[in-house]
Amino acid sequence: MKAARWHGIRDVRVEEVPEPQIQPGMVKIRVAWCGICGTDLHEYLAGPIFLPNEPHPLTNEIVPLVLGHEFSGEVIEVGQGVTNVEVGDRVTVEPILSCGKCMACKNGWYNVCDHIGFHGLSGGGGGFSEMTMVKAEMVHRLPAELTDEQAALIEPAAVALHAVRQSQLKAGDTCVVFGTGPIGLLVIQAARVAGASRIIGVEISEHRQRMALAFGAHDVFDPTKEDVVQAIQERTGGGADVCFEVTGMEQGLLSAIESARTNGQIVIVSIWEKPASIPPNQFVLKERQMKGVLGYRDIFPSVIQLIAEGRFQVDGLITKKIRLSDIQAGGFEELVKNKGHIKILVSPKPFASV
After folding, report:
1. pLDDT digits (tens, 9 = 90+) for 52-80
2. Does 116 have pLDDT greater than 80?
C-alpha cells in the first residue's frame, strides 16, 4: 500500500509499505481523510522533534516513519476481542500511544505518559496511508451527521477543547488567543462554548485575522501594527483572565505573559522547536500562573457531539484537499509558502474526488 514517510527535513516520500496485518484487540481502518497538522509541519521543517531517532519505547521503531494523526476512515477488519466497533463503521482515531504503567497513566493522565507517543509520529503506522491499524479503545464511531472531512478535524478540535478545559477560564471571563492558525481558531471556538465574555485574537496574517473574527473573536490585534499588550490591557480593563499561547514563538509567549491580569493565567498550547527565555518576575510580581497542556484525554466524545451540533464550526478551516501523491508539493510546501491556508486535508484513496 502507499504511505507518506518522513525521511528528513523537507523530505517526505510516498512509498510502498507493508499493509498492516490484523492482531487481537486492534482495528484496521481504510483512511478517508487526514489533515496536515502544525506538528507535522514542525517535523517537516525542523524535525525530528517527536519523531524518534532511537527506537521508541512503545513501538520500537525509528525514522523513516509514516506521518498523519488527524484522520477519519472506515473499519475494514477487527481483531479478536474487539466489540466497540464493527466492519463498515465510520470512525476517527484518538492517536495517543501510552504505556499504561507509569504514574501518569495510573492516574488517568495518559496524554502525558512518561513514554508518550502518537500514531503517525512515533511508529505503528499513520493516517497518511491507505490503511492503518490502531488499538480498539482509541477508535471512536462517527454519527451520520458528520462528514469524513469534518471527522478529520476532530483531533485538532480536541486539542483546543482540552486546553480550555484545563485552563481556569470561567463563563464571563476574558481571554486572549495568541496565534490564530488551526488550533488557535479552534481555541477561540472552545472559549466561546465555555462562555468567555470577550475573546481577543492576536495575529499578523490579515486572512487569519478575518477568520478569527468569523469564528467568534470580538477583537483581533496585529502585533506588527500596534502594541498588543497595551491594547489588551485597555480593552480588558487591566489584562485578560486567561491568555492562550498558540504561536510557538518567544515573543508571542512574552506578550501573553504581559497581557494576563494580576492572578491571571497563561496556557501554553504550542509545541516548541527550541527553548524560550521566561522572566520570572512577571509571574512573581503579579502572582500569575503558567500551565502547559498536551493533546487531550477523555474528550473525543464531547468534541464529536459539539461538531455534530454545529457548535464547533470546522468546515471553514479546510482550505484545500489533495491526493496523497501530492502531499509534499501540494501539502507541506504549500503550507510553507502560502500562509493563507488553515487546514489541508489529504486523501489516500486513489480515486477520491479532491
Report:
1. 999 999 999 999 999 999 999 999 999 99
2. yes
Q: pTM for this structure?
A: 0.95
- Cβ distance 172 to 307 under 8 Å? no
DSSP state of 250: H
Sign of the Cα torsion 176, 179, 184, 185 reads: positive
Q: What DSSP state is assigned to residue 327?
A: I
How far apart CA 308 and CA 213 sit, in angstroms, is 22
Helices then strands, each counted (H, E), the chain: 11, 18
Instruction: Provide the residue type at 243 as one letter.
Output: C
Extract the C-alpha cell encoding 316: 471553514
DSSP secondary-structure letter at 153? T
Q: Which sequence spans correspond to the domains of the chain?
A: 2-153+314-347, 159-292
CATH number of 2-153+314-347: 3.90.180.10
Residues in Cβ contact with 201 at an 8 Å cutoff, skipping those fewer than 6 apart: 176, 177, 180, 184, 188, 209, 212, 213, 217, 219, 220, 221
For residues 246 and 153, give the distance between their C-alpha atoms in angstroms, rounded to a whole number: 17
187 is written with which cell numbers?
A: 481555541
List the grid coordinates of 191.
Answer: 472559549
CATH class belonging to 159-292 = alpha beta
